[in-house]
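Appendix B, example 12.
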Amino acid sequence: MKKIIYNRFAKDWMAELPKVTYDKDIFVIVTPQQTEKAVDYLLSMPILGVDTETRPSFTRKQQFKCSLLQVATHHNCFLFRLNYTGMTPAIIRLLEDKTVPKVGLSWHDDIMSLKRLNNFEPGYFIDIQDHMKEIGIQDLSLQKLYANLFNERISKTERLSNWERDVLTSKQKQYAAIDAWACIQLYEELLRLEETGDYELHTLEMELEIEEDFRIYEELATQKGQGG
């Protein structure tokens, strides 16, 4: 039986899906010395998943720098706390490497964020969003892509947490690791589907979602008019 995927994935479909958990090793890198061994290990792997995190700002006047680079293999994830390590020569070597594919999502934005810390020439990066359209998928957020291809829900509750806190919480580490690790899973599943053709694309009309948004808007407008 072929896998059913959708061109668009409604957000409310995710409510009933089981939550993704991460039971692999997570290594937090906090010193420049640790970056050397970590990068040597990572560049010995066949593929890497990548992502970044930045402390959220809730005012326009205050903007924070990228504080975390997470790099995952199939079996573990390294969290480089850039606000402690800085952009060391080892980290730049990792980012400029042209031999190991590094898979991310909307990775152009992450590169720009990292370049604000130290300039570098980006190496071998693959952006999943550039390729998912090849099989007809239009909803390209990490959460919707993972739900669409694996029927599991990635929690985003830690996204706006403080990524510059002295010690990351276990929930933060899990969140960060999953986001990088999921990029590998998505890319390899995409390659499998393209190679085997083992999927059926079900097309949903965008108008359905637009109509729902308009209905909610009308309800809110009516409540406001009634003094609600």
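Residues 49 and 72 are 5 Å apart (CA to CA). Confidence is low (pLDDT under 50) at residues 223-228.
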